[in-house]
Amino acid sequence: EDCPPALVSGEVRLAPNARVAYYAQDPLAGEDPTSLRSPTIRTPMAAALATLARRFETAPDAPSEQQLGGPGDRAAQAKQLLRRYDFDEALHETPVANLSGGERRRLQLMAALDVPSDLLILDEPSNDLDLETLQSLERYLLHDHAGKALLLVSHDRALLDAACDKLLVLPGDGYAADFGGSMSEYLDLLDEASPVLADDDDVDDESVVPGRDAKPRRGRDEAAARRKAKHNAPREIDKLAQAIEAKEADLAEIDRELERHASDVGALQDAYARRVVVQTAVDALYDRWAELEALLETDDEDR
Question: I need a labelling partner for 110 at 20 to 30 A (CA). Which of 155, 191, 293, 298 fits?
């Protein structure tokens, strides 16, 4: 039975007869059926034949051996499948080790997408894909896989916005929160939650950017920029303290809301998602404060 790799801790519980397709970030890692590491998957033709075999095994209306035909018929079906993923016949018997990164990715997509599944798990699927293949993947997720479960891990904001209607936010505090919206909407909320101190007229632009390890702007003297940042640091710290106080008041209000809606799962998820956004902003403010404190502790150089 197809299953994602073992967890670091915990367990995976699958419903009876659940079909899971998994696309790994590394095409040569893991032991799942989509991995190109398998000793039986030596060429694209072998990968296509294996994909067809898994398709027939997992499909509810799987054909009989008589319907599948002989080896010649299966080879013809495999060639047709490879053509769909832009593999010229000259590549059909090429060793997997000699394929380009993009060609290996297309074989992975074939193994993951061309087998019926109830849950599709994709780990950074857009890596090494050309634009045409990426657009094909997006169309597949929006149409062929519509109505089925998808777990997508990606840095591709456009793909996330197009394919996902909910985010699982992992802020690093040991908890997870549902966010009912797109990645762009979530990032917009983060921006709104973080004050832009650089817009203040009392703080020079250089005071916001350079830190202890910052690189100087082109044509600017590094020591002068650091001295200017150090001069403005106390005023910026004052503004950080005010911003943190306001955000922590927001957190306290959200915590009270969590207590009020303890029995309402939907309201709890919404409130916690908002709490994650505000807490992320507070953490960023404290990080900036620490940078400024470290800057104030340094000795001025090249006076």
Answer: 155
| CA dist., res. 162 & res. 160, Å (int) | 5
**Which one, of 169, 154, 166, 160, lies nearest residue 141 by Cα?**
160
Closest by CA to 268, choosing from 279, 278, 259, is: 259
Q: Which positions ≥6 away from 51 have C-beta within 8 Å?
A: 81, 110, 111, 114, 115
Contact of 251 with 271, CB cutoff 8 Å: no
pLDDT by residue (tens digit) across 258-291? 888 888 887 887 888 888 888 888 888 888 888 8
183-193 helix and 265-297 helix, angle to the nearest 10 degrees? 50
Output the six-digit token pair for 114.
């061309």
Kindly report the pTM of this predicted structure: 0.59
Q: Taking the CB of residue 241, how many other CB atoms lie within 10 A of it?
A: 12
Helix, strand and coil content of the chain, in percent to the nearest 5, comes to 55, 5, 40
Residue 301 one-letter amino acid: E
Over the Cα atoms of the chain, what is R_g? 26
| Polymer length of the chain | 303
Tell me how far the alpha carbon of residue 133 is from its chain's centroid.
18
Task: State which amino acid sits at residue 300.
Answer: D
Integer Cα distance of 288 and 296 in angstroms: 13
